Amino acid sequence: MFGKNRILQAIAVVRTQVENVSAETLGKLAKKLEMGLGEYAKFQELKSLAVANGDLSSDEGNAVYRYLGNSLDTFNSQPVEIKIVLTTLLGELLGNRLAAIRSK
Fold it and tell me: Mean pLDDT, 10 residues at a time, over the chain (104 residues)?
C-alpha cells in the first residue's frame, strides 16, 4: 500500500468544509483564486522541485500535475476546493523556496 496522499486528503477535507457555502460565494472565491500564466508556470516548477527534494511524494506531485493540467485553463476551471488546496500549497512552496534562498 502506498503512503497517504496529503493533496487528496486536503481536497476531501476542504470539500466537506465548503458543502454548505452558497454557490454565489463559491463562485466569487473561485474567480479570486484563478492563476495567471506566470503563477501557473512557477507552480509547475516549484512542484517539480518539491518532488525532487522529497517535500512532495511522487503521488502527490502527480496529483498536483493532474489538477494543474497542461494549460492554465485546466487549473482555472477546477472546483473551488481544489483551487483552495493548490493555492495554499503554492504559498507553502514559495515560502520554502524563499527560506532556502535566505539560508544560503
Answer: 82 96 95 96 94 94 95 96 97 91 87
Rg (alpha carbons) of the chain, rounded to whole number: 14
Following DSSP, what letter does each residue of 27-53 receive, concatenated?
HHHHHHTPPPHHHHHHHHHHHHHHHHH
- Residue 6 corresponds to which cell in the numbers above? 496529503
Rounded-to-integer distance, Cα 21 and Cα 17, Å? 8
Which residue is associated with the grid cell 527560506? 99
CB 85 within 8 A of CB 10: yes
81, three cell numbers: 476546493
| Neighbouring C-alpha atoms within 13 Å toward the C-beta of 50 | 25
- CA–CA distance, 10 with 94 (Å, rounded to integer): 19
Question: Computed from CA positions of residues 51, 85, 83, 92, in that sequence, does the dihedral angle turn out positive or negative?
Answer: negative
Other Cβ atoms closer than 10 A to 20: 6
